[in-house]
Design goal:
Its cofactor is Zn(2+). Helices cover 36% and strands 15% of the residues. By secondary structure, the chain is of the alpha+beta class.
Length: 245
């Protein structure tokens, strides 16, 4: 699914109405495909570093007749947490991160973005709603507007970090669909993962190799350090700053 008619316009450089149109299209696809398929995976691979062969900014949508491994794991852990604590796990987590603020990157009335404490990629982030929402298509109009805003703010900060069109893989996770629409899925909380590979510059990336593949993932900077660096970046895109007189 292409984001815009222009082949050189990425999400952080698009207007808020244009980003809102992308969100509406995601929700429509999730509804249409979710009527039949248990799992609808919306994701974006941005940049050649993430294996993107088509330079026109776009995302992909895969629908499967089964729950993939990550979905199964998230389903099990969120179900277990709700059973034990009586509150959705990621809703409680968002509330805790909003209070602590040390891993917070950006926030607004409906959303927040954090570098999660379990992050393995240097500037990995998690986008969370403040209220209990199971699926992308359940968002209200105002929540979609504020989602467009917070996505733009996050992605501008990403681009500004090394003044480059920041590569990443991102994707949405929400409650399963298809036959699961008839089941109780209140343990689920909608969220989006962002996994960017860049570490020290526009050309120096993190590699998950050697010890990290065979033993344990290592962090090059703490989640708190990554959040502070992203948080301190301006929210005007570096290309637009360059155009100012």
């Amino acid at each position: 699914m292409c984001f815009h008619p222009w082949s050189d316009l990425t999400l952080p450089l698009m207007s808020l109405p244009e980003i809102r149109a992308v969100i509406d299209a995601w929700a429509e696809l999730a509804t249409d495909l979710g009527a039949s398929y248990p799992w609808v995976q919306i994701f974006e691979n941005k940049g050649a570093m993430m294996g993107c062969s088509n330079p026109h900014p776009h995302c992909q949508v895969w629908a499967s007749s089964f729950l993939p491994n990550e979905a199964c794991l998230e389903d099990r852990m969120q179900r277990q947490h709700l059973s034990q604590h009586g509150v959705p796990m990621l809703l409680e987590y968002a509330e805790q991160e909003a209070r602590r603020k040390e891993r917070l990157v950006v926030e607004n009335a409906d959303w927040l973005v954090v570098v999660p404490y379990w992050a393995t990629w240097p500037y990995q982030t998690l986008l969370l709603p403040r209220r209990h929402v199971c699926r992308l298509q359940d968002l209200s109009g105002s929540e979609r507007d504020s989602l467009a805003s917070i996505m733009q703010r996050l992605l501008i900060k990403y681009d500004n970090l090394f003044e480059v069109s920041f590569p990443y893989s991102m994707g949405w996770h929400g409650a399963p669909t298809g036959p699961y629409l008839e089941e109780d899925c209140k343990h689920w909380q909608l969220h989006a993962h962002y996994y960017p590979p860049l570490l020290r510059s526009a050309t120096v990336r993190k590699f998950m190799v050697g010890y990290e593949m065979l033993a344990q993932v290592q962090r090059d900077l703490t989640p708190e350090q990554a959040a502070e660096r992203l948080r301190s970046l301006p929210e005007v895109h570096y290309k637009k700053r360059a155009e100012e007189p």
